[in-house]
Every structure is written in structure tokens, then in C-alpha cells.
Design brief:
This protein has helices at 3-20, 45-53, 57-69, 92-96, 98-105, 135-153, 169-184, 200-213, 224-246, 257-262, 265-275, 311-323, 341-350, 387-393, 396-404, 416-420, 427-444, 460-470, 472-482, 486-505, 514-537, and strands at residues 30-31, 41-43, 75-81, 85-90, 119-123, 157-164, 253-256, 279-282, 285-288, 299-302, 329-334, 358-363, 366-370, 373-374, 412-415. The chain is an alpha/beta fold and 546 residues long. The longest helix is centred in the last third of the chain and has 24 residues, at 514-537. 40% of the residues are buried.
Length: 546
């Protein structure tokens, strides 16, 4: 929690116990007023207690004010304003004490225990290994990776998992497509499947396999499809992993859908559902009684032609998560999966698990725009733009930042031109330039000396910056609880703005005032640490030079 807010809440809570014998958690709320004339911090506690105490809130505020003023505190001045707001001016030296906390903790500043070692299995991306990662997958990758960093910073134990959709008809079509492209290298024309894959990646796979294995598979039918399915799967997955590595996205666990079949987890799930009387037969198909568990209609598990629907391995996958001991699951799914959520929740509930043990966050699509016009195709290949190409056209930093800068459930327009700009219009450049400028100032400064007294930091711009540094831990924990990494982007922009404003009004290195110089250099070092920590939470670099 914000160090100052925590202390101020404690002071107010003590006053409430003394005055009214009220001791409730989360009752006291603190905020930073937009206008500094209304104090450093403000509380609406008097209005919140008005109904309970049956008193005018202004009278309650005066009583609290008088009670606190009689004790020796961190507070410099208290005023009652409006209908009962209590405004607090905090002793400047206390606000500035956060500087040494930050300098001492360095990379660990921002750590908090809101997660209390709770285990979460976080699944994201999970693209089919049949082609390049598209921008929707990439947004989910940036969001999921940033979220995992924030959750870890907040005390959660996170398993980052990629569910590989490597079974079913799409993999058969991939294998057939790879074989057809392989055969082309020997001037043999093979029919591409109706839903085949025509991208350059499959053409390249065919050529690589032709170079490696020669023409042996033209004359050997036994095992041919399985061979090309597996080889194409491996090569496509390797490419996905390379793209994710470029994008600074890592996973702790890769779960294969095919392995769920091979280890009988899929068949066992169906058998258990039959044993639990969760299914029935109708029209030669096997149906799951999902309406008994909140879904709007029952769902088919096994179709009349005896093939399984996608729901069956998905159920097995989620059961396997629970079997591994995870009681909290979070999935990041694309917007096209929104209607799929009720049936998965129904399945979890049917097997006796709490519906609240799974939460699904929807990731909306990305639209690329340049000069006000939508861009759909690559100028180089004529195909849909891949995440690798977008990173090469702009930068990994820009793509990651832009992809998490807005709430995941909002559509995102990615402005390619803006992402390339080296000006303050580009939010990534604006933040990184702030960091690089701090590095430059510290490099030019005299030998650094850590101080313990910050009595000279009284300028309004210094106090604004200090209060916002104090707020970092709060922002991290709030971003974790709400699972909204975009709040970190908002923080980065504001912190950069407070720094730029401070730098414009306050001379840092002043040979005529050595003590003030030392204090301001310490403030800059603290700002540098927090800005880097914030950028790291969303996977963006903090360059020392621009």
C-alpha cells in the first residue's frame, strides 16, 4: 500500500475507535485531490459515517479533525471542506521518505502481498500450430505476459500455460497440405485439402522435408499422414516459439491436446460423465446436460458420425488443470470464444468444481491503421501482417506497450505511424525519453551521495512527483486484483509527465546549493527505479540512451 496512505488510514482508524468505537476494515478511503489547494490527501470518511452516526457529516469531520490534531502525527495541517471532506497536508519530509525506501529496494520496489501466495494457472495465446501468430494472438500474448509479471509482483504464484490445439481436423489438413507441398518439389501434383493451408510457411515446410528425406514418402503410404502432421506441427510450433521469444513472452508449461487423447484423459472424461449421468443419447449423438448447470442449451459431445466436438478435449484440459492441484484458473480468450464460456463453466460445475474457480477474460481484436486508413495486408508478402513483421516495422517495445495500453475487452486501433514516431506524441517514446533523460542527468551529476533528510524538497512539482512515487505499490496491487495491465501504462504516462514537469521547473544540478542538488538527485534516482520497474511489468525496455 502507499506508505503515506497506509499511515494516514491508520491515524484515521485510531480516531474512529477513540471517538465512536468503530473498527471496520476497508472503511477509510483516501484519495489525492486534483487541486493541491485541497491538500495532499483527502478522505470522505465523514460522509460514509453520517448515516451510521446519524450526524451531519461536517460535524463528524470536525470531530475527527480535532481528535487527530491533538496527537503527534505526520500531518502538518487539517481542514474540513465542503459538505464534510477532510483534507490533509502531510509533512514534506515524510512524503519524501519514500525516496530511500525505493533506493534500498531497487527492483523489488512494487512488491506486495495482495496475492498471499495464491496459486493461479494462467492460460493465454494457445494458437493452433497451423500458421503465423496473428495480431489477436499477439495482443493476448502481450496482455497475458504483462499480467503474469504483475501478478507475480503482487505475491501470486503463477503458472503460465500454453494449450496447444494440435488435434482434430485442422491438423489433418495441415498434414495433407504439407505433403502436397512436399510432392511439388518432385513435380508431383497432389490435391490440396478443401480447408488446406496455402501460406508460404507450409510451402517452406514441404521444401525442407523434401531436402531432408528425399522422395521416399512419394512411394510410402503407410504412416505418411502421421509423419507430415507431426513434422509440420513441430515446425509450426517452433516458429510460434521463436515469435514469442522475439516478443519477450515465456511459458512455464505447454500442454498438448493430442497428448490428452494419447494419455486417455479425453476418453476418461467421457466415461466419467456417463458414470455421473451427465449425458444422454439423442439423434445418434451423445449430449451433455449443460442446461442443468446454467447453459442456455445442451451441447453435443459426440456427433452422429462418432467424431468428438471441440468441447470434449476442452473439458479434459480443464479437469487436468484441477488434477494438478490448481483451484484458481484464468483463461485469456479471443472475442470469438465469448459464447463458449457458459458451456465450460457448466462442465466445471458438473464435475463438482466451483464455477468461480475459472475466470475468463476476453481479448478483443486489433485493427492496424496508418494515416487514418485500415491496413490489412503486408506490403512485402500481400498476406495478413504477422506479429513478427509488425515488430520489425515498429519495435517490440511499441507493440507491447500499445497492445496493453487499453483494456483488453476494448477494440484496439494500432496506429503504425504513431508507433514509429520519435516524439512525445508516441507514449512509448515519451516514457523511454523520460528514463533516458534521468540517466543522462545522473551521469552528468557529481558523485552520488545518498541523503536521509529531504527538507528542501518543497516545490509543488517535487511534491507531485513524490506523491505519485508513493502510489506505485497501490497501482501494482490494483492492476493485479483487477487483472488490468493497462493501469500500469496509465501510471507510466502520468509518472513520465510528473517527471518532465519537475525537470522543466526545477534545476537539478545547482552548484550554488549543494544540499538541494543532492536531494534532487536522490529523487531522480528513485524516479528512475520506479519508471524502470513499471516498464518491466509490461515487458518494455528502459533505455539509458535515446
Amino acid at each position: 500500500m502507499n506508505k503515506v496512505e497506509e499511515k494516514l488510514k491508520s491515524i484515521i482508524k485510531t480516531s474512529l475507535i477513540q471517538l465512536y468505537q468503530i473498527d471496520e476494515e476497508n472503511l477509510v478511503m483516501i484519495e489525492i485531490p486534483k487541486d493541491n489547494n485541497n491538500g495532499d490527501y483527502s478522505s470522505n470518511i465523514a460522509m460514509r459515517l453520517s448515516k451510521t452516526l446519524r450526524k451531519n457529516p461536517k460535524l463528524i469531520a470536525e470531530e475527527i479533525k480535532n481528535n487527530i490534531e491533538n496527537s503527534n502525527t505526520i500531518i502538518e495541517k487539517i481542514e474540513v471542506a465542503g459538505v464534510g471532506f477532510i483534507n490533509f497536508w502531510i509533512k514534506k519530509n515524510y512524503i519524501a521518505s519514500i525516496i530511500n525506501d525505493i533506493i534500498d529496494l531497487k527492483d523489488d520496489f512494487g512488491l506486495n502481498d495482495i496475492g498471499k501466495n495464491q496459486d493461479i494457472l494462467l492460460e493465454y495465446v494457445s494458437a493452433n500450430p497451423t500458421g503465423d501468430l496473428h495480431l489477436g494472438h499477439a495482443r493476448g500474448a502481450a496482455w497475458g505476459d504483462s499480467l503474469s509479471r504483475i501478478l507475480k509482483k503482487s505475491g501470486f504464484n503463477i503458472l503460465r500455460e500454453y494449450y496447444i490445439n494440435d488435434a482434430g481436423a485442422q491438423m489433418v489438413n495441415l498434414g495433407l497440405s504439407a505433403y502436397a507441398r512436399y510432392a511439388e518439389n518432385f513435380n508431383v501434383k497432389e490435391q490440396m485439402p478443401i480447408d488446406g493451408y496455402y501460406g508460404n510457411d507450409v510451402i517452406n515446410i514441404g521444401k525442407e522435408l523434401a531436402d531432408e528425406y528425399g522422395d521416399k514418402w512419394l512411394y510410402q503410404e503407410e504412416g505418411r499422414l502421421e509423419f507430415f502432421k507431426e513434422k509440420a506441427r513441430i515446425k509450426e510450433l517452433e516458429k510460434i516459439k521463436k515469435d514469442l521469444e522475439l516478443f519477450r513472452v515465456e511459458f512455464d508449461s505447454w500442454i498438448s491436446e493430442q497428448e490428452l487423447y494419447d494419455t486417455n484423459k479425453v476418453s476418461d472424461a467421457i466415461l466419467k460423465m456417463k458414470e455421473m449421468n451427465l449425458v444422454y443419447e439423442k439423434d445418434d449423438a451423445l449430449w451433455f446436460k449443460t442446461t442443468d448447470f446454467g447453459d442456455d442449451k445442451d451441447r453435443v459431445l459426440i456427433k452422429a458420425d462418432k467424431t468428438l466436438t471441440y468441447l470434449v478435449p476442452d473439458i479434459a484440459n480443464h479437469l487436468y488443470k484441477f488434477e494438478r492441484g490448481y483451484s484458481k484458473l484464468v483463461n485469456l480468450w479471443g472475442a470469438d470464444h465469448h459464447g463458449y464460456i457458459p458451456r465450460i463453466l457448466a462442465a466445471i460445475n458438473a464435475f463438482g468444481y466451483d464455477r468461480n474457480s475459472l475466470e475468463v477474460d476476453i481479448i478483443q481484436m486489433v485493427r492496424l491503421v496508418e494515416e487514418g486508413k485500415e491496413v490489412k495486408m503486408s506490403k512485402r508478402t500481400g498476406n495478413a501482417i504477422t506479429i513478427r513483421e509488425l515488430c520489425e516495422e515498429t519495435s517490440v517495445d511499441a507493440v507491447r506497450y500499445f497492445f496493453v495500453s487499453r483494456a483488453a475487452d476494448s477494440h484496439l486501433d494500432f496506429d503504425i505511424g504513431l508507433a514509429r514516431k520519435k516524439s512525445n506524441e508516441n507514449p512509448v517514446y515519451y516514457a523511454q525519453y523520460a528514463y533516458a533523460r534521468i540517466c543522462s542527468i545522473l551521469k552528468q551529476a557529481p558523485e552520488f551521495e545518498k541523503v536521509t533528510d529531504y527538507d528542501l524538497l518543497i516545490n509543488e512539482k517535487e511534491i507531485d512527483l513524490l506523491k505519485y512515487l508513493n502510489d506505485f505499490v497501490n497501482v501494482v496491487s490494483d492492476s493485479a486484483v483487477t487483472r488490468m495491465p493497462n493501469k500500469i501504462c496509465n501510471y507510466i504516462q502520468k509518472l513520465s509527465g510528473y517527471f518532465h514537469s519537475f525537470y522543466s521547473f526545477c534545476k537539478v544540478i545547482d552548484d550554488s546549493n549543494i544540499n538541494l542538488t543532492k536531494q534532487r538527485l536522490n529523487l531522480l534516482l528513485a524516479t528512475k527505479i520506479v519508471l524502470k520497474n513499471a516498464l518491466d511489468l509490461i515487458g518494455v525496455n528502459a533505455p539509458s540512451k535515446m
